[in-house]
Amino acid sequence: MNKPIYFLVFAAFCLAMLSIPSGSLAFRCGEEVVARGASTAEVLYKCGEPEYITGKKKEVKGTFASGTEFKRSTTYTTGGYQQEEIKTEIWHYNSRL
Fold first, then answer.
1. Residue 36's CB: how many other CB atoms inside 10 A?
2. pLDDT tens-digit map of 19-75
C-alpha cells in the first residue's frame, strides 16, 4: 500500500476511537449490573453499603411565577414559589487506595 492509503486507514481508525463514549454507562457489583442513574434503593440492594462516601453536596433551586388578573376594575396579582433540593453523593465501592 502507498502512503495516502495508510493515512486514510489511520484517520478512519482515529475517528472510530473518538466516537466511542468514554464514560461508563453501568458498573458491576458481584454478579449484578447497576446502570447509571439507578435509585439509591436499587444500588443498596445490589451492592450493599458503600466503603465510603465523598462529595456530599446540597443544591437548592427555586422558581417564582406570578400572574395578574383583572376583574371589575380591580387588579389581582397572584404568585407562587417552588423550591427543589438536590442532594448529591459519590459512593465508592471496591476502592483500592
1. 9
2. 665 556 778 888 888 888 888 899 999 988 988 888 888 888 888 888 888 888 888
DSSP string of 32-72?
EEEETT--HHHHHHHH-S-SEEEEEEEEEEEEEEEEEEEET
pTM of the model: 0.46
C-alpha cell at 29: 457489583
81: left (phi over 0), alpha (psi -120 to 50) or beta: beta
- Residue 78: strand, helix, or coil: strand
Helix (H) or strand (E) holding 23: none
Cβ–Cβ contacts within 10 Å for residue 27, how many? 15
Map out the domains of the chain as residue ranges: 23-92
Give residue for cell 440492594: 45
Long-range contact pairs involving 79-83 (C-beta distance under 8 Å, separation at least 24): none
